[in-house]
Amino acid sequence: MSKIVVYLIRHAEAEGNFIRRFHGITDSNVTEKGKLQAQKLAERLKNVHFDVIYSSPLKRAFYTASKIAEGRNINIIVREDLIEINGGDWEDRCWDELPLLYPVEYEIWEKMPHKHCMPNGESMYELYVRAKSAFEDIVKSNIGKTICIVTHGTLIRALLTYIKGCEFEKLNEIFWQDNTAINIIEYKDGKYHLVVEGDWSHLGNELSTIAYQDWWQQFLKERGIEKQDLTIIERRESYE
């Protein structure tokens, strides 16, 4: 079977990321910093040939995909199944409110996210099943091609458990990724190989969304990491 290369990318910074409100299916606009992030991402990927670009329908993902598509004779295919998790009652709530309003659910979100279910929304496992199905369908429809998928942070985190061959119960070991972070996956002979994971080095600290946010520093501290880690699993000249 011919090799397939997938660039799995998180959207640029949107209002919910900046003001720290839970925006799953809430369709917030890209911020000014987000526009700069998307431009940096597009510049980094300018020499990568994409046969097709897929996007979530939400504005923050479609804007990011549109910047990647600029100057290319290529259409963006919007798929509803690439949308972010449906946060139900959490939608558009301040993150600081959530542990006060939903202490049990928030504890599960933080410590055992694979068991989490959004109140009147989507469970993490439902998101995982949806993301896995969408990803498999896209990959198997594009044999021998290089494709780009622009989607969302929670969906990417859940999907990476599948791509890395982890049990879904290991979800909490998958790191959150910054806006416009790049993952590169190869698929050949029925197997996935994660070549690059969560690389946002094109942003630098000045354009990072999460580098200086308290929740991110706490997330790293809990995992014994003292500072932001831009580790790339493997870098190949052909991808740059």
From TrEMBL:
What CDD domains does the record point to? HP_PGM_like
Q: What SMART domains does UniProt report for this protein, alphabetically?
A: PGAM (SM00855)
Which Gene3D superfamilies does the UniProt record give?
Phosphoglycerate mutase-like
Q: Name one GO cellular component term.
A: cytoplasm
Which ranges form a coiled coil? none
Q: Could you say which residues bind substrate here?
A: 10-17, 60
Q: What name does this protein carry?
A: Histidine phosphatase family protein
Q: Which organism is it from?
A: Caldicellulosiruptor owensensis
